[in-house]
């Protein structure tokens, strides 16, 4: 069973008063005035393209989406820019270093982690890697990769709908 993050707030995190309307956005405590808006967290995804105009897809080794395909990427940490997060995540997951990146498109998403669903805004970048042939996966996160011209075989098995939408946008834009 999953619950939306705003529904998980049954009590005020500041004063512990009972929530008058659990699930309402924004959360407003009538006792102490604490307010929380439940805005989306930022995540990045990389459409890494090799010299043959193929796209790097990675297979997830853990939930959410274990065994499904996706784009390398992850969450933006506090005190880092989106571009820093993209470079960090790509290096952590694939050991690739990016030469160039440009923002392609953004999409809203939801992330279900251990039954709590949080809103996310995904920022997708088109990227080139300095040595695309040197992929080394982080086995705790990913268990396989392919360089492909995306087909329905892969698109129908994407872990996150926003990844599929970004790939389709890339293909429709004439870049893919």
UniProtKB/TrEMBL annotation:
<keyword id="KW-0460">Magnesium</keyword>
<keyword id="KW-0479">Metal-binding</keyword>
<dbReference type="InterPro" id="IPR020084">
    <property type="entry name" value="NUDIX_hydrolase_CS"/>
</dbReference>
<dbReference type="InterPro" id="IPR020476">
    <property type="entry name" value="Nudix_hydrolase"/>
</dbReference>
<comment type="similarity">
    <text>Belongs to the Nudix hydrolase family.</text>
</comment>
<dbReference type="GO" id="GO:0035529">
    <property type="term" value="F:NADH pyrophosphatase activity"/>
</dbReference>
<dbReference type="Pfam" id="PF00293">
    <property type="entry name" value="NUDIX"/>
</dbReference>
<protein>
    <submittedName>
        <fullName>NUDIX domain-containing protein</fullName>
    </submittedName>
</protein>
<dbReference type="GO" id="GO:0006742">
    <property type="term" value="P:NADP+ catabolic process"/>
</dbReference>
<dbReference type="GO" id="GO:0019677">
    <property type="term" value="P:NAD+ catabolic process"/>
</dbReference>
<dbReference type="GO" id="GO:0005829">
    <property type="term" value="C:cytosol"/>
</dbReference>
<dbReference type="InterPro" id="IPR015797">
    <property type="entry name" value="NUDIX_hydrolase-like_dom_sf"/>
</dbReference>
<keyword id="KW-0378">Hydrolase</keyword>
<dbReference type="InterPro" id="IPR050241">
    <property type="entry name" value="NAD-cap_RNA_hydrolase_NudC"/>
</dbReference>
<feature type="domain" description="Nudix hydrolase">
    <location>
        <begin position="39"/>
        <end position="173"/>
    </location>
</feature>
<dbReference type="InterPro" id="IPR000086">
    <property type="entry name" value="NUDIX_hydrolase_dom"/>
</dbReference>
<dbReference type="GO" id="GO:0046872">
    <property type="term" value="F:metal ion binding"/>
</dbReference>
């Amino acid at each position: 069973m999953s619950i939306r993050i705003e529904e998980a707030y049954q009590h005020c995190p500041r004063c512990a008063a009972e929530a008058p309307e659990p699930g309402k956005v924004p959360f407003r405590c009538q006792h102490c005035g604490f307010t929380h808006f439940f805005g989306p967290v930022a995540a990045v995804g990389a459409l890494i393209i090799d010299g043959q105009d193929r796209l790097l897809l990675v297979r997830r080794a853990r939930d959410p989406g274990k065994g499904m395909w996706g784009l390398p990427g992850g969450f933006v940490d506090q005190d880092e820019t989106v571009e820093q997060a993209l470079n960090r995540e790509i290096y952590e997951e694939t050991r690739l270093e990016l030469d160039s990146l440009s923002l392609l498109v953004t999409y809203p998403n939801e992330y279900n982690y251990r039954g709590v669903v949080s809103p996310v805004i995904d920022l997708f970048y088109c990227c080139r890697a300095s040595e695309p042939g040197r992929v080394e996966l982080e086995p705790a996160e990913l268990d396989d990769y392919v360089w492909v011209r995306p087909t329905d075989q892969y698109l129908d098995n994407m872990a996150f709908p926003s990844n599929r939408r970004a790939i389709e946008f890339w293909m429709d834009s004439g870049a893919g």
